[in-house]
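re: ur question from earlier - yeah i can do the single chain one, its not a big deal. heres the input i used so u can compare w yours
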Amino acid sequence: MGVVFAHAEDQRLYLWERDAGEPVPLTPEPHTEAGLRYADFSLSSDGRSVLCVREEHGRARASGTDGGPGAQAPVGAPAGDEQTAGDHGTAVEAADTVAAAGAVSPVDTVGPADTVGPADTVGPVGGTEPVAVEPAGTDGAATAPVPDAPHRGRSGRGGDIRRSIVAVPLSGRGAQDPSVIRELASGADFYASPTESPDGGHLAYVRWNHPRMPWDGTELRVAPSQGTEYTLKGGVDESVLSPLWVNDSTLYLASDWPGWWNLYQAGLKGQAIALYPAEEEFHAPPWRLGHRSFQVLSSGLVVALHGLADMTPSLYDPETLDLTPIATDLTSWSQLDSDGESVVAIAASPTTPPCLVRLDPATGSIEVLRTSDLPGAGGDAGTADDAAPFRIPVPQAQTLPGRYGAPVHVNVYPPEGSGPAPFVIHAHGGPVSHSTKEYDLVKAYFTSRGIGVADVNYGGSTGYGRSYRKRIHKEWGVVDVEDAIGVARSLVDQGLADPDRLAVRGPSAGGLTALMALTADTFACGVSYYGVADLLGLAESTHDFESRFLDSLVGTLPGFTERYRERSPINRIDEIDVPVLLLQGTADPVVTPDQARTMAAALGERGVPHALVEFEGEGHGFRSAEARIRALETELAFYARVFDTDFGLGVRPLTLSTAPPERPRAAEPEPGPDAAPTQAGSLSANGSAGTEEALEREHQSG
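and the output i got, formated as tokens:
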């Protein structure tokens, strides 16, 4: 028994067996740092290899894996790795090996980034691109792989990237001899979910190509051990995800063909059959590799997560066609995995921090394996410090009227206190992502100080079906902005929000929404966390996974150049007259620092009050505890300055400038224990820890 994992530091695969003193490398050391990356693991049918997606960068191309141009090893062929009983990782031991789901997270992405980072990170924003999947052909006919095809498209940093599906021997021979690592599929821009049938006769996987994103269109491909591979389901307008074998000739999968990601059953030929048609999602948006939302048990029953933005588990019986909810107080579930008898997942609720749980489908019992030691964990009250008690807010889900009466989904966190209150409208990153109702100390940080928060799942968000998701197609910077403004006005009409104390905030893609919303007359101020200010600049500098994302969000270049300019906040400065706070990392490779600097300079030229606070060494999403805490404190100080109140905590307002900055302002080091607070006061160890973790989750989602 052992675990296969990808190590963040060098991106190599390792096997750590239970009684071994240290892990053993399975893949070769690349010629360039982190030049070979692996993710989305599954065990081969014979238990001797791990199947995964490999991403090769530039000169780090793997050698000796293709046996010539376009060559492919047949499924079920010998691994080229003759194991003996004395080898490290014998066939018996390998058969019992558990391949860890190495999720590649969209850590350095414009979108969830709530979309890729080190392969062993749990969480959409920091230096590695998402290894994902897309189809090369979508006409349903068999297509031959294109050998050594780098990604095809416009990208400032995409460069020479090649992805494939490979079989890595568990014996460890691949670490010294790359030729024993078999390449099973190649030629498409992206791959995901490789899985081999129990008899080893067929390989199933998902693929897609630029300019599509995996929620736009993917192909489920099947490669028989004898014969030509073919497309079983999917295409340019159908997103197929997470195939799982039920037996040697039957797959379960998720498809949004009916407008929602529903579960389907497919044979090796013919039409797929819907298992439980419903207007709800049975799969999370595919921002990360290795994340599944359903699992097949050895009994044949299926544990499936389903719902809207927040999903909960149910047990599906393919014999009776019944879907039975599993009773639980945890309301936001994700990342399902199983050993065939029980399932494990990450789960949370508005008052329970994310925790690792084990679910016994037979009894419905849920065991918490690991939880967070955060304020309010397990309850609805916590303490930030001895002087400032606070309550974990429980959101109110509302559907409010947006553009032309279209519904807009929002989670409203009322502040403590009464009467019309200052409100912050939050626009999540993505933009094709969503916010959930799970435990969030960032919300508590504001609501406990009398500031309400409305978390808007604007048009384009996931979790509400394909048509809602496609509302933002070619309309980014319009639909999302109108929805944010519509929510703010609705809260005013309800008497919850003070019309003179409305703010809008957002990270990354949500930063563009926030800045564009300031061109209207609704908000008194706005906050951008490493937000997009220049769409043309983003198109040139972003990473490969999202290098053609803007084609669907805005339009193809160069034909829609003027639209890119029109939707860029940097070109709408003349319409912004309210204070702006820009928070930016100096090492951001996605939304580069020049965007925030140019924005600050332009605001200063017009005499608009603003502050640009840079965080040295931070990327797209602040990583250090110091940066995350200081950013939040700076934001609160900004609201105190604009709304002319200290929110009862003696916060000293942030100084705003009305002139172009001589140079970017760097965040100051954390003051010592005896130093007076310089911006928004200080947090105790309890408050800091909770805020750090909540901020990290927020930044990883956009």
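Residues 64-109, 111-157, 378-388, 668-702 have pLDDT under 50 and may be disordered. not sure if urs matches, ping me
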